[in-house]
Amino acid sequence: MPLSRFRFVITFTFVCLLLFHAYSLQAARLKDLADIQGVRNNQLMGYGLVIGLDGTGDDIKKSVFTKQAMINMIKRMGMALSSDVFDQMKTKNVAAVMVTAKLPPFVRPGSTIDIHVASIGDASSLAGGNLLMTPLKGPDGKTYAVAQGPLAVGGLSFGGKAAEVQKNFPTAGRISGGAIVERAVDFKLPDSGELTYQLRESDFTTVSRMTEAINYFFGPDTANSLDSGTVLVSMPEGYHLVDFIADLENIEVEPDIPAKIVVNERTGTIVMGQDVRISTVAVSHGNLNLIISESIKVSQPNPLAEGETVVAPETTIETVEDEGNMVVLQMGVSIEEIANALNAIGATPRDLIAIFQAIKASGALQGELVIL
Prior knowledge:
24% of the residues lie in helices and 36% in strands. The protein has helices spanning 3-26, 64-76, 83-87, 204-218, 241-249, 335-344, 349-362; strands at residues 28-29, 34-36, 42-51, 95-103, 112-119, 130-137, 143-150, 156-159, 164-167, 172-181, 194-199, 223-227, 230-234, 252-253, 260-264, 269-272, 277-278, 281-285, 288-299, 310-321, 325-329, 365-366, 368-371.
């Protein structure tokens, strides 16, 4: 092979590898973009009691539902107590809680799932508590799992009458594998092998690319797009359904991300998509600072004069305005150029939110502005 041709082959191969690598960095697996219709989690919920607390539980006199739950529990244990005993209850070692969990698809009876526990009374902490047997029910009122076990609380709370120290939220916790599944959700994959995939974010471009990738991998007419969020897939002959789904899930598709700017005014967080573009627009930014100071002066009468010594506050107001800088953003600039230009005028995140709102109002922002 001539040397020039050999160099051409090496260069061409290297360029192809770079292009494939760049594509793979932007591509995502089909399993991360869409779900099979009907294959989903199911919400479970139950009411229970947490015992063994060190005086941080509910106040029985104020939390009527906690007291009633304790009475019912004691009666179920076969203990017959008079009503006077229940009226004299003063324990604070018990807390009423709500228990929630997600029942995964295809889970079978005997499997364990994680549960989350949160106080619904006036308990100050659930640390060190133990959840008593709690049925977890679905929207149909049937019991699908039973929860019980010691809580893991990721917070603490200590203090007295003068001071208190708290970290995270001690009134909520979780139990890993704390519930045993007692009933499975009736769902079966279709025997015909026809699967309906639903995109988590509907988009015509993404669903078109997904259909094209599936047909390229399995052959033409394997997948058909129904709308912007649904793809109908037919299993080819000679495939086992589970193996077919496994191969489908690992097909890589490059999703199309809409041009969008998401801002959170409460935290000052700004997230911009890579396809955000701005038409030619001039931005001027000037800060107006209002400084209010207050000093205390004493007004005292002259000697031998009638009057009283009083304290008179004096308030002064000063305004300081920074110089405004005019920055021109050219049409079609990238997100990096937008950030550099706005940083050049010293705009803080909260200032950027106001600037983006003004640019959107002027019609120069090609993208959606989402304010949380």
